[in-house]
Design a protein that fits this description.
It is a single chain. The chain has six helices and three strands. It has about 120 residues and is mainly α. The protein has a three-stranded parallel sheet with strand order 1-2-3, sandwiched between helices. β1, α2 and β2 form a beta-alpha-beta unit. α2 crosses α5. The chain starts with a helix and ends with a helix. About 30% of the residues are buried.
């Protein structure tokens, strides 16, 4: 875990043009580290990220249940990130805030208590 945190901390951005993710742990970790994130708006990523806190790539045509992000969309998003580092840092901070609001220990505890009370 320490090495992964160091790797994220050394990066300027995180890019995962995935064809499909269950949970999307790497995206979650990158957002928690306040990195600007470029990822496919599909599957687990779509449940975690929003357009305000990440560069979400169109999934393209689904083939066999998998997304097909294009190299053109990836390149465009990465140019946006590199072209305005201050704006990218703002997006990264919003991503960190989103992850904290959804998955901090307190947020998870509230969700568990609400689910138990519902039962």
């Amino acid at each position: 875990r320490r090495e992964m945190r160091a790797l994220y901390a050394a990066a300027d951005a995180f890019c995962l043009p995935t064809r499909g993710e269950g949970w999307g742990l790497p995206v979650h970790e990158a957002m928690a580290m306040a990195l600007p994130v470029v990822a496919t708006n599909f599957s687990g990523v779509a449940a975690l990220a929003a357009a305000a806190d990440a560069w979400l790539l169109p999934p393209g045509e689904l083939r066999g249940g998998f997304a097909q992000p294009t190299a053109r969309d990836v390149a465009r998003a990465l140019r946006d990130v590199a072209g305005d580092r201050a704006a990218a840092a703002d997006v990264g901070r919003r991503g960190r805030t989103r992850v904290a609001s959804l998955f901090s220990p307190e947020a998870v505890a509230r969700a568990i208590v609400a689910a138990v009370e519902e039962v």
